[in-house]
Amino acid sequence: VEEYDLGFRSTTDHYKSVLSEFFLFINEQKGIYNEYFMDKSKFLTLEQNYEALVSSMKLNDKQKSNPITYKQMVSIIEECNSVIAKTEELSIAEMLSKKGAYSKYASAIICKLVALIGTKNAAVLSIKLGDFEEATRALKIGGCKIILPHSFVLEIAKYRSKRIEMIGETNEKSLLFAKRNEKKLDNATAFKIVQSFTDKTSAIAVSKYVIIQHIKNGMPSYMIEDITGCKSDILRHCQELLREEYSDSELVSVSE
């Protein structure tokens, strides 16, 4: 805990579980006996001491949402692309005549944005019309200007055009993602597509997946916090999950 500056109980629980499996394995395969893991009474004592240490070290024991899987991420992006492509072809009249068409369209843009950047719920839903610059392909989030892929810029531009035409509000300080009454979208509406794959009305599981990719790519922690809007505790949890991933790997490849 001290060596790696761990802060979450979930990480130490995982380590303890791995140790238990390890000693069970070497006992079955090599006949090596560890009394603290094999003897029930001593294992109970070990558990009590472990709980005392968790308490004394003040490890965060709140249940943390784990990141989505790669397969879930692919499915979410594919669904977003499908919804965007279908809705772009609709006129405003057609969109209004189809119940939920606009809200699902907005959800597709929002969820795809989170899947690309990792931005948390509140930060995405606070983006203003003026924060998006089509000409420079830039989107302003958390004081940073992020250059988006050209194809996604076109999708956001088409969405913004339909949103302005339907709602009629063009003030640069107005919300990019808004209901027809100009009010901010609620989480259930904004992250409807994510919910269909994760059963959650929050995109934090998606954000954590993206944050881990940012860490793997060497992005500085302060920059990750700025563009995602996620606090240091979420970033720390992602770092611990990544450390678990590396510790579970048999091989680590290095170059000269």
Features:
256 residues; mainly alpha; 4% strand; elongated
Characterization of this structure:
The chain has 256 residues and is mainly α. The radius of gyration is 23 Å and the shape is elongated. It contains 13 helices and three strands, in the order αααααααβββαααααα. The longest helix has 22 residues, at 9-30.
| Rg over CA atoms | 23 Å
State the order of secondary-structure elements, H for helix, E for strand. HHHHHHHEEEHHHHHH
Oligomer: single chain
Average pLDDT, to the nearest integer?
83
Reported for the largest beta sheet, the result is: 3 strands, antiparallel
What is the percentage of strand-forming residues? under 5%
Globally, the shape reads elongated
Give the total of beta strands. Answer: 3
Q: Helix amount, in percent?
A: 55-70%
Unreliable segments of 5+ consecutive residues? 250-256
Distance between the termini: 30 Å
Neighbour order of strands in the largest sheet = 1-2-3
Topology:
Blueprint: H1 9-30, H2 35-38, H3 40-56, H4 70-88, H5 92-97, H6 101-117, H7 121-125, E1 132-133, E2 138-141, E3 144-147, H8 150-167, H9 187-190, H10 192-198, H11 204-216, H12 221-228, H13 232-248
Antiparallel strand pairs: 1-2, 2-3
Helix pairs in contact: 4-6, 4-10, 6-11, 11-13
